[in-house]
Design goal:
single chain; 3 domains; Jelly Rolls; 12 helices; 6-stranded antiparallel β-sheet
């Protein structure tokens, strides 16, 4: 079996990579030469840069942005690393933990994470995961209006307009027809504008305990039939006051928060289970498949069937 061992990093044990790759052949799990190199990297705990340890599915550069769709196998462990350029990671599939010096977060589908340049972090992937990583090169940063500067801290977006825009961007990234370049440029400007807006809006940092309890309740029961009246009653507050304070502290309405969580859950199911779209719709809390498809398409700009097909085709 001929393998391009010469293409491997000089510091790796070529025999170890060969043996791991050979074990993939004919196995039910499968795997690529890159997967084998990754395993040896993780075992040696070598420092990395960028997304070297991921399987790059597609990569393009345009208008000052580098777009890379990357897949990571389950239990992959990326040691501490950093990136030369600020970038946005949009999670399409899977779950992983990201650890910085003082913080640790669990992320899932339908989440966008902004990282400043030079920020050090490491990742552990609980399941097979897929991300669209968008590097903001110097040209794109210089085009920001009014000499605005990108954030110098990590920012996480789990709902709102940024997620809608990110799904549209991914659709164009996959489509790449005659109009995609123009569309992608426009979407990136919208994403950057929304990122700046969200990070510069002054919001109270510490929500009252009763509001935190309600947000936790939504996270636990988002697949159930949730109503503002029921949530307000659980903490003995007025529904109008709840709706106003939720938007003030968290930046989104309760309805948008619930819908985004349901679509996030559904994206995971579409990529990781064999359940039918109808079954996923019911599991996610929608009335039927038609209702689910309408909401899914509104947020992602594609249908559940097309989303699943795209994930499985890679």
């Amino acid at each position: 079996m001929a393998i391009a061992i010469g293409a491997l990093s000089a510091s790796l044990d070529a025999n170890a990579v060969f043996l791991i790759y050979k074990s993939f052949i004919g196995s039910r799990r499968g795997g690529t030469l890159q997967d084998a190199e990754n395993i040896v990297n993780f075992a040696n705990n070598e420092p990395t840069a960028g997304w070297k340890n991921g399987d790059v599915l597609r990569s393009i550069s345009l208008a000052g942005y580098n777009f890379t769709e990357t897949s990571y196998f389950a239990k992959a462990n990326l040691p501490y690393h950093s990136h030369d350029c600020p970038y946005i990671c949009f999670i399409l599939q899977g779950n992983f933990v990201e650890k910085q010096k003082k913080r640790e977060h669990l992320f899932g589908p339908a989440t966008a994470i902004f990282h400043p340049s030079g920020e050090t972090h490491k990742n552990y992937f609980y399941s097979r995961s897929r991300c669209l990583n968008i590097e903001l090169c110097s040209d794109s940063i210089h085009k920001l209006p009014n000499n605005e500067q990108v954030s110098e801290t990590t920012e996480v977006f789990k709902d709102g307009e940024i997620i809608h825009l990110a799904y549209r961007l991914y659709r164009e990234f996959c489509l790449q027809d005659a109009f995609s370049v123009l569309t992608i440029q426009g979407l990136m400007l919208e994403i950057l504008a929304e990122t700046l807006r969200r990070t510069k809006i002054s919001r109270p940092k510490n929500a009252p305990r009763w509001l935190v309890q309600i947000k936790s309740l939504i996270t636990e029961e988002f697949t159930e039939n949730i109503s503002i009246e029921g949530l307000a009653k659980s903490e003995n507050v007025h529904p109008t006051h709840l709706a106003r304070e939720f938007k003030r502290f968290f930046g989104v309405t309760i309805g948008d928060n619930v819908r985004t969580k349901r679509i996030e859950f559904a994206c995971g199911k579409l990529g990781e289970s064999d359940a039918s779209i109808r079954e996923i719709a019911l599991q996610t809390g929608f009335f039927d498949q038609s209702h689910f498809t309408r909401v899914f398409k509104h947020i992602t700009r594609t249908t559940p069937a097309a989303y699943r097909k795209n994930l499985l085709s890679r």
